[in-house]
Design a protein that fits this description.
By secondary structure, the chain is of the alpha+beta class. It folds into 2 domains: 20-50 and 65-133, 2-Layer Sandwich (Phosphorylase Kinase, domain 1), CATH 3.30.200.20; 140-340, Transferase(Phosphotransferase), domain 1, CATH 1.10.510. The protein has helices at residues 8-15, 58-61, 85-100, 140-150, 156-174, 219-232, 240-243, 254-269, 276-279, 285-290, 306-315, 326-340; strands spanning 20-23, 26-37, 40-47, 74-82, 111-118, 124-132, 180-181, 186-190, 200-204, 210-211, 214-216, 249-251. It starts with 7 loop residues before the first helix and ends in a 6-residue tail after the last helix.
Length: 346
């Protein structure tokens, strides 16, 4: 996929001064900027659809999961400024991986374009435009900061219902042959149009997703994996084997199970389980993770049940071979939800 040649100038001009974005003959009108970070900008865009056969709408032209089709035609478009060949290669690797997944709890890439643009010094750079479903509630990190400031906590049942959706999305990735690992669990929790239902949970950012299973057979291979993880995986969620990889080992998708345990803890308390080490004099995040030294902060009143804490600990096993698989996690979270659902009155 990409942007049609006739649409390149329109695409560039639209983002830099008004007009419509045309991606693979599908036009979108930029409404406003909704985020930015690093070399990327995120825009809210609205699909422009008319009666012409060539403009029958994105959903009509692509095989999209119903949950990804916007009722009002709005989507989010991420613009990435690519300044080097390494950045270009990273985006080119992210696109096919992001396009693999079609699940209501995964933020699927709907369309994309990579174009060449003339730089201020006369040279040529690249820009990437990635189209996604839109969720305006912000990331989980955004929401957790607000809740922490207000000293608010999710209920036990809501924690489990959020986590259940996250597991469903990750199971989709782990069900591929070979399985894919997300490698850097990041999510959106959306409250929009969810009256009487738990928040919608969406796993996002697949730039680090790779086939999960790796055979490490030398110190050199172990160090290469550690260097890759240090560059691409968020430290508070990184599994112990990615901090200190043995020279002879098999890595699999259970690196994500460790990240799931960290994420469940963060859904409960708004922080990850080993961040306390960063505030301790002489503390080491790496040592706290490798030794699985969990500390439990004060929780809601009444506090979360021991069963929830034990669930976190089950996932945060420093030895990957004894960590559960995603199917085991799903069975357990379903049982806990059944236990904590309000009992219907006869």
């Amino acid at each position: 996929m990409g942007c049609s040649f006739s649409g390149l100038n329109a695409l560039y001009n639209a983002v830099n001064g008004g007009g419509d974005v045309l991606i693979n003959e599908n036009p979108f009108r930029i409404l406003r900027q909704i985020g930015e970070g690093g070399f990327a900008y995120v825009y809210l865009v609205k699909e422009v659809v008319d009666d012409a056969p060539s403009r029958s709408g994105l959903a009509a032209k692509k095989s999209m999961h119903p949950s990804h089709v916007s009722e009002d035609g709005t989507y989010s478009m991420k613009k990435v400024l690519i300044q080097s060949e390494d950045q270009l290669q990273f985006v080119r690797e992210e696109i096919p991986v992001s396009s693999l997944f079609n699940h209501p709890n995964l933020l699927s890439l709907l369309d994309h374009a990579i174009i060449s643009v003339k730089g201020p010094q006369g040279g040529w750079n690249h820009e990437a435009y990635l189209l996604f479903p839109v969720h305006l509630d912000g990331t989980f990190l955004d929401n957790s900061k607000v809740m922490q400031a207000k000293k608010e906590f999710f209920s036990t049942l809501t924690v489990l219902q959020i986590f259940q959706q996250l597991c469903a999305g990750l199971k989709h990735m782990h069900s591929f042959d070979p399985p894919y690992a997300h490698n850097d669990v990041n999510l959106v929790i959306s409250h929009a149009h969810r009256k009487g239902q738990p928040p919608l949970t969406i796993l996002m950012d697949f730039g680090r997703a790779r086939p999960a299973r790796k055979e490490i057979r030398s110190r050199s291979e172990a160090l290469q994996l550690q260097e890759w993880a240090a560059e691409h995986c968020s430290a508070p969620f990184r599994a112990p084997e990615l901090w200190d990889c043995p020279s002879y080992t098999d890595i699999d998708e259970r690196t994500d199970i460790w990240s799931l345990g960290c994420t469940l803890y963060a859904i409960m308390y708004g922080v990850t389980p080993f961040e306390y080490a960063l505030g301790d004099s002489g503390g080491s995040l790496q040592l706290a993770i490798i030794n699985a030294q969990i500390k439990w902060p004060p929780g809601p009143d009444p506090p979360y049940p021991d069963a929830l804490r034990q669930f976190v600990g089950w996932m945060l096993q420093p030895q990957p071979a004894v960590r559960p698989h995603i199917d085991d996690i799903i069975i357990h979270v379903d049982k806990l939800i059944s236990k904590y659902l309000p009992q219907a009155k006869p």
